[in-house]
Write a structure and sequence with these properties.
Three copies of one chain form a homotrimer. With 114 residues, chain A is α+β, with helices and mostly antiparallel strands. The first copy, chain A, has one domain: 2-Layer Sandwich (60s Ribosomal Protein L30, Chain: A), CATH 3.30.1330. Chain A contains two helices and seven strands, in the order E-E-E-H-E-H-E-E-E. In chain A, strand 2 and strand 3 form a beta hairpin. The two termini of chain A are 14 Å apart. The interface between A and B is medium-sized, with 28 and 27 residues.
Chain lengths: 114, 114, 114
């Protein structure tokens, strides 16, 4: 068994790789700004974390998108649709949920092939 | 690494298969009707997607059930309990969350063995 | 393909093991008490389920924490931070969601290496 962690604190890791699969959860870089800027900063972080784990955004498997306000659905998707490589979209759930930091408008849990 | 996608649009895929595991997210066929009919149509779609990915409902691993209203818990379970083959139930989380389409009463994220 | 289930009822299993990965969802032992006692009882159950599946809390991959009230975030984390072995924290999402039993303050969905 191989199990590799990145960015591990007492509470959580940025990502964990096991058995050819990488798991990561990301939030916006700052708890301010609109859904476009927050989604963009979050997805930029995701790209860095995927690269660190030996993966990339062509290998997404399943993504859960948590929106603090479902009114941001179109705004999040506008950034998402441009970010996902053509033909490589993961399966995806999107639900509204209150997040840990009231300034965050979006959080994503991602599973990808490593 | 094998990675196969089904029903891929710019935004998401119906299902993704990787390393012997299939990931899929499904919603009701129509954004109307009661929880019984929506759960039934959703699970019928799940069966088709599982078959397409080389899996079936005896191989469910973990399911997350999102209900727009937790008052639908018993109604969803009545359909679910009849649908899951005896002895094959996955581990399952069930929470209330506002969904992307206000007419949807249920959404499910599913991981199964392929 | 190996696929092993534990604690299977008509509706769900306590845990499912497939391909070197264990999936489980847990809630508090009782639908009463504060967030500290509920988180502690939940995590004690998680340890038992992980052991039953041939895993342990040093092998956590990704955890989704559902809190009935985000005001319990610090209380949940106080127990969590003490429970997770140093250097072994999984990646983790934490969102607020109404749960199936109104007495539950927390529910966790866990993926771990088996």
């Amino acid at each position: 068994m191989t199990l590799e962690r990145f960015g591990t604190t007492r509470r959580y890791s940025d990502s964990v790789v096991h058995n050819g699969t990488v798991y990561l959860v990301e939030v916006p870089a700052a708890a301010e700004g609109d859904i476009a800027s927050q989604t963009a900063s979050l997805l930029a972080s995701v790209e860095r974390l995927l690269a660190q784990a030996g993966s990339d955004k062509t290998k997404l498997l399943i993504v859960t998108v948590y929106l603090a306000d479902m009114a941001d659905y179109d705004g999040m998707n506008a950034v998402w649709d441009d970010w996902v490589p053509a033909g490589c979209a993961p399966t995806r759930a999107c639900v509204q949920a209150r997040l840990a930091n009231p300034g965050w408008r979006v959080e994503m849990a991602i599973t990808a092939a490593a």
